[in-house]
Amino acid sequence: MSRRSRGSGTVMSMRWLALLCLATLPALAGEHKVAVAPIEGVLGRADAVALEEAVRAEARGLDVGVVQGAPASVAAAADLGATHAVTGKAVRLEGALAVMLTLVRTEDGARMGMERLVGFTLADLQREARKKVPRLLRAGLGMEAATPTPTATTTATPTTTATPTATAKPTTTAKPTATTSSSSASAATSSPPKPKPGPRFVRPPTQISGADEASPLVRTIREVVEDVERRCAPRRRRS
Length: 239
Fold this sequence. Notes:
Order of helices and strands: HEHEHEEEHHH
Helix content: 40-55%
Strand order of the largest sheet: 2-1-3-4-5
Distance between the termini: 90 Å
Oligomer: single chain
Largest sheet: 5 strands, mixed
CATH superfamily of the domain at 29-141: TolB, N-terminal domain
């Protein structure tokens, strides 16, 4: 009985060791773990939580590990075992919402990528997150993106080569062409010149107070303003 009990004990210990090895394989392989920090700015807390969960869902869709909770800082994300953190800043520009997402490496605080979500409602921001968060994570984490293979673009070009051969036979069409060319030349000389268009209105660059004009943040905010202007143009035409 003692030998059997000893044998069963060794089998159980070997099973526990195997389970521990399987549990530590992802850490040994150096997989990425992402934490999503609370989104700051003008976005309401309920909408911010919903958008943060949309970012986590996109990370899980790419088989990226997601740390539970919302750490308040990059250092707190590192304490939870995250290799990267996604931070967000929400601003309101010309009636639209813009959320700038930044992927930060927790080891040294280096910025690995940035994407901006622009929309008028929470649903718009969530649609933007489904489109742009995977691109942010693939580029920042060094993951390979699925590149489509172009196949249908080169097949339709050779079909227009056989048509001009039938038009080379008639040789008696040279006389009317001279008359039509002279008539067109006379019509061109008699038509009044078109007036030149007036100067086009160019919107001056957005003035941002409290920031250096040469900083990358000012350049990013101006790009967001231009994006918002393009989105607001159809609504202004309808009104």
